From TrEMBL:
Protein name: Peroxidase
Organism encoding this protein: Tagetes erecta
Domain of life the protein comes from: Eukaryota
Keyword Phosphoprotein carried by entry: no
Annotated binding of heme b, by residue: H192
Amino-acid positions noted as binding substrate in the UniProt annotation, renumbered to this chain: P162
Length: 317
């Protein structure tokens, strides 16, 4: 990006809760062991090279995975281009700022040459999301594979992405609809340790209303970067004081009243989530362990078995 991606859960829209089923499909860490053993190496090398060229890639790909899984499940529907007859998720308002699709496309092209019609775009994205976390000094986990790619992608469904203005109750309900619990909510919100947000996703809480939960000095700094009549479309704030490193500073910032989004700070105002924030702020190893577990769990949301293996991630076969 000219600006690093907005965090994985940034979407300034009213939340309409719909159920995305949590599935126990036949996924396996060794799914391509026989049919395409070089798949993960190809993906890693592609993502690594792209990240060296553009340091914003890790935050973008992690966000891409969240946004894909939260709508129709982890089926790569976010990667499909719009057509004359259909406006796809990629062009839904919350996803306009999602970037770096070219990295997934590049990895898929290389995999197609090595193992034609074998590895789904959904699996490429899931592996890439794991790799960018590990590359950023975060945890590594064995990605379960065997997803199929979906054939349906609708822009109007992106309204179901969690909003940066949501309170804890709304967030808990949204995650529950996807088979994810309160711990998963707080844990996966830690993905905000990577990335950047534009002013539009948080300016209301620093200008239009007085939010007592925000640190006053931090609020003043945000107002300087995002004045009331801001004309710089690229202006904004990093979501974490160490935004290129995957660590637990996100939680420390929340405790200090320096959560950029209202939805971030809401996690420390609610008794159901506050103690989890405290535990992750104190113990980075615990956060890493839980993040890896929750990412595996997120990767099971909405997995389909009757989809396809797209040859090109942006179009159905």
């Amino acid at each position: 990006m000219a600006v690093i991606s907005i965090s994985p859960f940034a979407a300034a829209f009213v939340l309409v809760l719909t159920v995305v089923p949590f599935t126990e499909a036949a996924l396996s860490a060794d799914y391509y062991h026989q049919t395409c053993p070089q798949a993960e190496t190809i993906i890693y090398q592609t993502v690594r090279n792209a990240s060296i060229y553009d340091p914003k890639v890790p935050a973008r790909l992690l966000r891409m995975f969240f946004h894909d899984c939260f709508i129709r499940g982890c089926d790569a529907s976010l990667l499909l281009d719009s057509t004359t007859k259909n406006k796809a998720e990629k062009d839904g308002p919350p996803n306009i700022s999602v970037r770096s699709f070219y990295v997934i496309d590049d990895a898929k092209t290389k995999i197609e040459k090595a193992c034609p019609h074998t590895v789904s775009c959904a699996d490429v994205l899931a592996i890439a999301a794991r790799d960018v976390v590990a590359m950023s000094q975060g945890p590594w986990w064995p990605v379960l594979k065997g997803r199929k790619d979906g054939r349906v992608s609708k822009a109007n469904e992106t309204i179901n992405l969690p909003s940066p203005f949501s309170n804890a109750t709304t967030l808990i309900q949204s995650f529950a609809k996807r088979g994810l619990d309160v711990k998963d909510l707080v844990t996966l919100s830690g993905g905000h340790t990577l990335g950047f947000s534009h002013c539009s996703s948080f300016s209301a809480r620093i200008h239009n209303a007085s939010d007592p939960s925000i640190n006053s000095e931090f609020a003043m700094n945000l107002k300087k970067k995002c004045p009331l009549k801001n004309k710089d479309r690229n202006a904004g704030e990093f979501l974490d004081s160490t935004s290129s490193k995957f660590d637990n500073d996100y939680y420390k910032n929340i405790i200090a009243g320096k959560g950029v989004f209202g939805s971030d700070q809401a996690l420390y105002k609610d008794t159901r989530t506050k103690s989890i924030v405290d535990s992750f702020a104190k113990d980075e190893k615990l956060f890493f362990k839980e993040f890896a577990a929750s990412m595996v769990k997120l990767g099971n949301v909405g997995v389909i078995e009757d989809g396809e293996i797209r040859v090109k991630c942006s179009v159905v076969n």
